[in-house]
Amino acid sequence: MGALHYLSILCPATSTRSKRKSMQTVEIKVKMDCDGCERRVKNAVKNIRGVKTVEVNRKQSRVTVSGFVDPNKVLKRVTNTGKRAEFWPYIPYNRVQNPHISQVYDKKAPAGYVKNVQTVPMANATEETITYLFSDDNPNACSIM
Question: pLDDT in tens for each of the 145 residues of the chain?
């Protein structure tokens, strides 16, 4: 132990190994029509280094990959199969504040899901009317003065 410790101090070895990726779940939207498409996408993704599980849901056009992987690498591998793919753009319906806004609601979304967009909170109607009551544009706004 003493000799190895002494040599390790004299010759510090720098590791050339890359930092290990964190465990991630990547969801991708891929249009799959048949069993062959589903099998081709699943086989392409499961051969990536670091993949633990691959779940394919053809009804929702969704591929879920879990493991120590890079999301962009998974997306690239799926697009190399000849299928048009994108990251899963939907979130559950109950996690959105206003799910019926035109930018959020999507007819193509699976049941129980809406589009994942960041909406800017709009002023409600009472704030607008109060602002209009004390506006210079409205000559009849304030009769107190």
Answer: 567 777 677 776 555 455 667 888 999 999 998 999 999 999 999 999 999 999 999 988 899 999 999 999 999 999 999 989 988 888 777 777 766 666 666 777 777 777 776 545 555 555 555 555 555 666 665 555 5
The alpha carbon torsion through 74, 80, 84, 90 (nearest 10 deg) reads 0
Q: Are strands 24-30 and 62-67 parallel, antiparallel or unpaired?
A: antiparallel
Q: How far apart are CA 77 and CA 70, in angstroms?
A: 11
| Residue 88 backbone phi and psi in degrees, to 5 | -60, 115
Amino acid at 28: I
Amino acid, res. 97: Q
Q: Say whether pTM exceeds 0.85.
A: no
**Residue 59: is it exposed, middle or buried by C-beta count within 10 angstroms (0-12/13-18/19+)?**
exposed
